[in-house]
Amino acid sequence: MKKNASEGIFIGKKEKSTLHIPFSEEEIKLLWSNSNDDFVKLILIDIYTGFRPKELLNPTEINLDQEYIIAGCKTDAGIDRIVPIHKKIYQFVKDVLVDTKMSYVSYNRKFSYTMKKLNLNHTPYDCRHTFATRADNYGLNKLCIKKIMGHSIQDITDGTYTHKTFEQLKELSLIHISEP
Questions:
Q1: b/e map of 113-145 (b: 16 or more CB within 10 Å)?
Q2: What is the pLDDT of residues 4-54, one digit of tens each?
Q3: What is d(CA 103, CA 34) in angstroms, rounded to the nearest whole number?
Q4: How far is CA 143 from CA 42, 53, 79, 111, 172, in A?
Q5: Is 0.85 surpassed by the pTM of this model?
Q6: How many CA atoms lie within 13 Å of 82's alpha carbon, on the beta-carbon side?
Q7: What residues contact residue 35 under an 8 Å CB cut-off, 6+ apart?
Q8: How far apart (Å, rounded) are the C-alpha atoms in residues 10 and 114?
Q9: What is the pLDDT of residues 69-124, one digit of tens each?
Q10: How are beta strands 68-71 and 81-84 bridged, if at all?
């Protein structure tokens, strides 16, 4: 009989990370006021989709007619998930994201440059945190947030018995995550 050597070991509570700070509403307004810049458009797309930076740069499919992007990596729940294109960023996706071919290193470099130029202090992952925070603040259904972000659903009821259609994800994200 095998015994789990780690059983009974307590390593303490997981500390909440302060590494990533969501963009404030004022900072998002600043981004919108600079949205003539193609890279700022990419940042706004990231804020409105909740993608990881690598997912943003390597979508599997962009369907402008049906208004969704398929992308994802890292986890089973995150791979090839369908994310609605918010009406506020639709034109940015069409004009910029469709033709973007950029490495992760180049994206990070341009992100840092843009943050300095706008006198902001954020990292690319702050966009994902901003999406999650805004979705929660605007009352988006928790299951929808997890599905859009590609997080696993631990609750048996939500994970097995509760179903959300793409139309529901799209409707909820359009209603609740709006431009400041």
A1: ebbeebeeebbbebbbbbbbbbbeeeebbebbb
A2: 665 666 655 655 556 789 999 999 999 999 999 999 999 999 999 989 888
A3: 23
A4: 26, 22, 17, 30, 11
A5: no
A6: 13
A7: 41, 44, 92
A8: 43
A9: 988 776 665 577 888 899 999 999 999 887 878 899 999 999 999 999 999 999 99
A10: antiparallel
